[in-house]
What we know:
alpha+beta; 14% helix
Amino acid sequence: MYLASGKKQILLFPQSDREYLYMRKEPGHQMESSIFIRELIENSSAWEIRRKYPSLSRTKPYIAELFPGDVMYIPHMWFHEVYSTGDSLGVSTWVTNTG
């Protein structure tokens, strides 16, 4: 992801956290969490989160902040949530290994 203007925050989880992220079960969405974790953290108390989503305490998230001109590579199979803090313009692309 390249950020041209504004600011973005990215919440990242390694592949090893998958089993703790309450993944969706619908076909075509198995690589997505069924909850928006940052939103949950901002709008709930720690007690509420532990009660409703006890497995989240086993995750090892990373938080990155991007500023204009920053480029970030998100490794394959890392789960992430991207948030803009105000207006922003970013460009992202998928990179595939063609052998």
